[in-house]
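Project outcomes to date are best conveyed with an example. Our students and postdoctoral researchers have been running inverse folding experiments weekly, and each run begins with a structure described purely in tokens. The record below, which covers 136 residues, was selected by the lab manager from last quarter's runs and is presented without edits.
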């Protein structure tokens, strides 16, 4: 990712995985391996993406107070690059880590305006998605 709260459209990459699978009918699951990056379905319209980002900020502001951000009190293993990102975890709680999409005729059966996004909630970094295709 390249920015905090970035919507990365991965629809074409997911469709390519479905094509390579040669599955005609079934499901494709798209899963984020991160607790501060989500997978969502929505429209790729720039003003709407800004609106959705603003909604997340209102619900769990980056400048808010989070126990998780007090690194001096944290227990357990921490990443050497650890930062104050309680807001990102709280936003992720509202969204989730995966989407399951039907496959029809060898491609994701999305609605007219639907796109698949990796949603970066924290800061720019390398992210991984797991894409699995099930069916016949």
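After processing, the design step wrote out the following sequence:
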């Amino acid at each position: 990712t390249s920015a905090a709260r970035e919507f990365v459209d991965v629809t074409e990459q997911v469709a390519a995985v479905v094509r390579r699978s040669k599955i005609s009918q079934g499901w494709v699951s798209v899963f984020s391996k991160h607790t501060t990056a989500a997978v969502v379905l929505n429209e790729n319209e720039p003003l709407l993406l800004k609106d959705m980002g603003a909604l997340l900020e209102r619900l769990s502001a980056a400048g808010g107070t989070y126990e998780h951000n007090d690194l001096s009190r944290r227990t357990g293993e921490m990443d050497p690059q650890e930062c104050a990102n309680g807001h990102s975890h709280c936003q992720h709680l509202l969204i989730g880590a995966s989407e399951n999409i039907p496959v029809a005729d060898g491609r994701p059966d999305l609605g007219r305006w639907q796109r698949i996004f990796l949603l970066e909630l924290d800061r720019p970094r390398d992210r991984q998605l797991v894409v699995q295709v099930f069916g016949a």
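Residues 46-59 form the longest helix (14 residues). The chain has a mean pLDDT of 97. The training component of this project remains on track.
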